[in-house]
TrEMBL record:
Coiled coil: none annotated. Residues 73-188 form the Phospholipid/glycerol acyltransferase domain. One of its GO terms (molecular function) is 1-acylglycerol-3-phosphate O-acyltransferase activity. It comes from the Bacteria. It comes from Natronospira proteinivora. The chain crosses the membrane at residues 9-34, 40-58. This is 1-acyl-sn-glycerol-3-phosphate acyltransferase. The lineage of its organism: Bacteria, Pseudomonadati, Pseudomonadota, Gammaproteobacteria, Natronospirales.
């Protein structure tokens, strides 16, 4: 137990030490092309995942990469831990933008870098205004060749649970005629929502066939994505 605690502390010390360096590098490149900033962010993500494996023995496998469309897409994923907020930048080959809580921008270094990466920060309490912001800015990011990542549950849920999906991501996809890529993760098996303990093992990421949003209502698209994720979660061994 004590050894596990020391490894956990060591992991967080390492992340705390490397984050300011990469964040300041992203900030230094603020007025340079977006690709340079995201490359730095991807490198930080790779370093964090390597350190996670080295200290806590958590790695991952990806199933379904062949399902990714060649065009920018709206990626809808279930949310079980902070792990996927780091790992997705290393898994998806496309340039990525994220829809996040606006409050994250206030976190020193990490939040500043998120702002420099032009992430879409929303106030979840301002529901209607948030939807309009996601649609307006999301369409602009898709037009620039970036895929959008959203966690439509809004919060992290433990293994075996899947929350209600907010409709902002599907609505954006339908407005932009962009495909929706459903993604299922089981990160909560090794990085639980509650508690500090983490368990060594292999996280599974399943990428589903894209849902064509053209000619469909956003509610249908949203439900199709949720149905696939629900089935994929049940299928994870």
């Amino acid at each position: 137990m004590m050894f596990d605690g020391l490894r956990f502390v060591l992991f967080h010390i390492g992340v705390a030490l490397m984050t300011p360096f990469f964040a300041l590098l992203v900030l230094a490149l603020w007025f340079m092309p977006y690709g340079l900033r995201e490359d730095v962010a991807r490198l930080w993500c790779c370093c964090v995942l390597f350190w996670l494996w080295l200290t806590l023995g958590i790695r991952h496998r990806v199933i379904g990469l062949e399902n990714l469309p060649k065009t920018p897409a709206v990626i809808l994923s279930n949310h079980q831990s902070a792990w996927e907020t780091v790992a997705f930048r290393t898994i998806f080959p496309q340039r990525l933008s994220w829809v996040i809580k606006r409050s994250l921008f206030r976190i020193p270094f990490y939040g500043w870098a998120l702002r420099a990466l032009e992430e879409i920060g929303i106030d979840r309490k301002a529901n209607r205004r948030a939807l309009k912001m996601v649609e307006k800015q999301g369409k602009a990011h898709l037009a620039q060749g970036r895929s959008l990542v959203l966690f439509p549950e809004g919060v992290r849920n433990p293994v075996g649970e899947l929350g209600r999906f907010a409709g902002g991501g599907a609505r954006l996809a339908c407005a932009a005629d962009a495909p929706v890529v459903p993604v299922a993760v089981d990160s909560g098996r090794f990085w639980p929502v509650k508690g500090w303990r983490k368990q060594a093992g292999t996280i599974t990421v399943r990428i589903g066939p894209p849902v064509d949003s053209r000619g469909r209502h956003s509610e249908e698209v949203n439900q199709l994505a949720r149905n696939w994720i629900a089935q994929a979660i049940d299928g994870v061994p």
